[in-house]
C-alpha cells in the first residue's frame, strides 16, 4: 500500500506526473472520465499559457498583498473581541427586545469573524499563499485556525491528497467525505438512501468531519507501515489536544468568564452565541466547498495514470471544479473559493488575485474547448442537492445486484454484524463512530 509523507511536513499541491490518453467522457449529467480530453500537444500548450499567467501574478506580489492579509487578520481579531463583548453584555440587559437584538448582533459578528478566519485567512495562509512574506505567524507552518481540526492534519488530507488527486475516486477522499455518494463510481449501499440526511449532518458538524477526516484516511494509508501506531498516535493526540482547546475556549472558559464577571445570564448568552456561530460557520463552509466540487458538470475521474503531465493535471483541476458568481463581499466570505477553478490550478497563489485573473482563465479554457463551470450560488447549490439526491437511489442494475447479494447470504448471518478490523472500545465509547473509536484507541 502506498505510504504518505509525514503530517508535519507542508506538502505542495504541484503534481509530478507526465501524459494521459484521450478518452471520451460519459455524456449527460455527472460526467466521469478516465483520462485527459486533450491531446498531449494541446495540454502542453495549455500548461505553458497557465504557467505564464501564474508567474506574472507571483512576480507582482509585494507590500499591497502583505497589507491585505494583515488587514484580514486584524479584522478577524477585532470582530471576534467585539462580538464576544456584545454576547456578554446581552445577558445584562433588562429589555427582552434589547437582549435579542444584542445577542443577534453579537452572534452575527462572531459568525462573520469565524467564517473569515476559516476561509480567507486560515485556508489561504495554510496553503502557503503568504509564505513569501516570512511573517512570524501568517505562514503555513505556524498558523492554526479557529476550528477543531489541527492545521497539520488538514494540510495532509487537503493540501496534499485533495489538491494532488482531485476528484479521483479512491485517491481523493474529499469525494463524498466517506459519507455521501456523489458518483456512479462509488458502489451503492443501502445507507445511501439517507444521502440527504447524512448531508445535513455533515453540514452542521462540518468542522468535526474535517477534523476526523485525516484519521480515517491515514488508518488505511499507513496500514502496512511498521510505524502505523506511532504515526496514528501522533495524529490522534494532536487532534484531541486541538479539540480540547477549542471546546474549552468556546464552551467552558469564555462562558464561565462571562458568568463570573457579569452574571449567569451573560454566561448563557455567551455559550449560546458561540454554539450558534460555530454552526453557522460549519454550514457556510460546507455549502461553499460542495458548490465548488459537486455541481452537475463537475467531472469525476476513475483513475490516475502515473504519467500524468502538468497540463493533464490542469485539465483535471478545471473540469473537476466549479465557480460561484457573486459580489466582492461574497468572494471575501468564501475565502475566494468561489473561484474554485482558479484556486485548484493555482493553490499557492494569494486568493485575492483570483477574481482578476478569472476572465483570462476562462478565455484560455474557451480556447482549448474546456468547460468553465460557473453560476450564481442558488443555481450551483440546487445542482449540488440534485446530485446528492440522484445518487441516493440505485440504478435498476445496482438494486438487482443488492437483492441478489442479500438472497445469497446464509440465513443466520442476515442480522449479524461482523467484527471490524479497527480497534474496538469498551463502555459508552463503543457507540461512537468507528473513526472516533480509532482515534481514541491510538491516542492512548
UniProtKB/TrEMBL annotation:
Record-linked PANTHER family: ACYL-COA DELTA-9-DESATURASE, DESB (PTHR19353:SF84), FATTY ACID DESATURASE 2 (PTHR19353)
Q: Which residues form the Fatty acid desaturase domain?
A: 102-374
User: What highest taxon heads this organism's lineage?
Assistant: Bacteria
Q: What is this protein called?
A: Linoleoyl-CoA desaturase
This chain's source organism reads: Psychrobacter glaciei
